[in-house]
Amino acid sequence: MIRLEALNKSYVMSEHSLHVLKDLSLEIAEGELVAIMGSSGSGKSTLLNVLGLLDRYDSGAYHLGGKLARDLSETEAAKLRNSHLGFVFQSFHLLPFKTAVENVALPLYYSGVARRKRNAMAASMLERVGLGDRLDHLPSQLSGGQKQRVAIARALVTDPKVLLADEPTGALDSQTSTEILELLLEVNAEGRTVVIVTHEPDVAARTRRVIHLADGRIGEDRRQEGG
To answer: Can you tell me whether residue 90 is helix, strand or coil?
Structure first.
């Protein structure tokens, strides 16, 4: 599903260049549940942005679902994102002036789905994540865990093949974190590929594969039981 070959990414900072990802090669198969860990500055977020087609890379190759993702126009990147990827962020990224169902329906709006149909699909997905009684609530009326459930519903409403989660439990208490992680495990059990960037060992322990980044390279790639 995901294949990186000798991928490099640098950022130009004033007169200097910061080499963030260094000849990174990686394969993640369809249906895998993977945690990406590493210290601050190791390249975790940059890697996730490249995987999510939110940032371009400099050299090497990235194949997503068998398609080479290189030198894509924004329209091409958006089309590939919409057909393959869902995103969950630590800070939720919900629009504060839209209700839960409107937030979840937003990707369908950009895909041209009619209003009645997209709202019905969004409501169904909110039911799926346990928020059927919160359809018309604004983000300010929801707890942190409920906001993250809305964000997960939004990520899933387009039926993506891959779910990319950036510190999805980082802003939540331990009990709520456990509930959100269980939801992500359910999503994976349905056959979706799930990639979680996390600094929390308890989260990584529930996955089946842990990739540690160190200074822009893979320091360890470990498969484990019980995830």
So the answer is: coil
